[in-house]
Amino acid sequence: MIQKTANSNCTTPLCAKSRAQESGKGCAMISQLHKAMDSMLSPSDLAARLNISRRTLQSWRSAGKLPEPDLHIGKIIRWKLESINTWLAEGGHERR
């Protein structure tokens, strides 16, 4: 069952817009998006997992040393844990 309420703690423009339009009641799509994003790694999460700074992560991403994000909505990027684990297993972290 899909939860029909917007995340009231979320500050993303998508949720803020939904709250403003629907007086606190989000749509199912926003709830699904939150569930997907909660199970994915943000740039900060990925940097911590790789034991590097966010700036280094940005440099690696610009240089093509990281896998492409699995989710890219506007400025929001996320990676699936499985994608990063596969990349690490293939020696991706050694291509520095």
Number of helices: 5
Q: What's the gyration radius in Å? A: 16 Å
When the domains are counted, the total is 2
Main beta sheet, described? 3 strands, antiparallel
What is the number of E strands? 3
- Order of helices and strands, N to C? HHEHHEEH
Question: In summary, what is this structure?
Answer:
This protein is mainly alpha-helical and 96 residues long. It has helices at residues 13-22, 28-38, 43-50, 54-62, 81-89, and strands spanning 40-41, 71-73, 76-80. The protein has 2 domains: 1-38, no CATH class; 40-96, Multidrug-efflux Transporter Regulator, Chain: A, Domain 2 (Orthogonal Bundle), CATH 1.10.1660.
Question: What brief labels describe this structure?
Answer:
single chain, 96 residues, mainly alpha, Multidrug-efflux Transporter Regulator, Chain: A, Domain 2, 2 domains, 3-stranded antiparallel β-sheet, 5 helices, elongated
Structure report:
This protein is mostly helical and 96 residues long. It folds into 2 domains: 1-38, no CATH class; 40-96, Multidrug-efflux Transporter Regulator, Chain: A, Domain 2, CATH 1.10.1660. 49% of the residues lie in helices and 10% in strands. It has 5 helices and 3 strands; from the N terminus they run H-H-E-H-H-E-E-H. The protein has helices spanning 13-22, 28-38, 43-50, 54-62, 81-89, and strands at residues 40-41, 71-73, 76-80. A 3-stranded antiparallel beta sheet has the order 1-3-2. Strand 2 (71-73) and strand 3 form a beta hairpin. Helix 3 (43-50) crosses helix 4. It is elongated.
